[in-house]
Amino acid sequence: MKYYLILTLALALSFAAHSKAEDTPDQWRTLDLDKTILLELETGPVIIELNPQFAPKHVEQISKLVTAGEYDGQSFYRVIDNFVAQGGMNVETTTKLPLLKLESDHQLTASDHFSMVSNKDMFVENTAFLNGFAIGFETKSRMSWLLHCPGIVGLSRQNEPDTGSSDFYITIGQAPRYLDRIMTVFGRVVFGMEHVQKLNRTESIEGDTLDRSIHSKIIKMQMMSDVPKAKRILIEVERTDTEQFEKKLIARMTREHPFFYIKPPQVLDVCQVPVNSRLVTSH
Question: Which residue, 30, 212, 233, is CA-closest to 131?
Answer without folding.
Answer: 30
